[in-house]
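user: can you give me the structure for this one chain? tokens are fine.
assistant: on it. calling the predictor now.
[tool input]
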Amino acid sequence: MAGPAALVVPALKKHTATVIMAHGLGDSGAGWVGLAESWRRRGKFEEVSFIFPNAPSIPITVNFGMKMPGCPTPPTLHKPSPAALILPPCLSSHHPLPNQHTPQTSFSDIHQNPDEAGILRSRSTIHALITQQIASGIPASRIAIGGFSQGGALSVLSGITCPHKLGGIFGLSCYLLMHSKVREMVPAENPNKETPIWMAHGEVDPLLKLEWAVNSVGMLREWGWKVEFTTYPGLAHSADPKEIDDLENYLQERLPPVGDGARSGS
């Protein structure tokens, strides 16, 4: 997932926590910076530094092979045609897109022939950002990772396979990548088994079906992870104010202020 340098919105007060939020296909870190800026204006998360990674621009099947920010070499589920383009497993947009999967595409279909090497490289990027924050003095328990669609899928995978116990893991409009192999990737001590995971999904998402998220949540719960799942009536492949409010509440619970009120860098 290495691309242009990540965008950082620094903490206003003493830096005690970090949120790493990954964007969706065709978007960039700048597409979500406004979220942190909005919280800043409202006096929220003043001790939190927000990091918005940027994915590289690569050829994307659903974009007729043209380059756009996305996961490395995502696979297709079927041969694309002008009438029916199939979204790859690492997939998304910050804004709604036309319906590009067939009604017959199942949860099993989307995991056929995944670009595992590309997914694992992206996971390594997320893990490296976590390691950098820990090295800078932020406890892993004060780091939350998450994202939207492509970014959410990578964050959930990165979170449950992270060797450090994180403060939070969240995924918006996404599903579980590499579900047939993910348990083999979890560290033996499973440090994030007790980390609360929050996933959210629009009930009329035409790109990443609600069914795929439901199946993902069911698997994670069956395997022992603590997952809260929220759906939003009428919401397609996008985010809405209620969902953002719920995300804010989740982050406030996972990363409450603990500092002494000193300005960052003091």
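assistant: here you go. The longest helix spans residues 116-135. The first strand starts at residue 7 and ends at 9.
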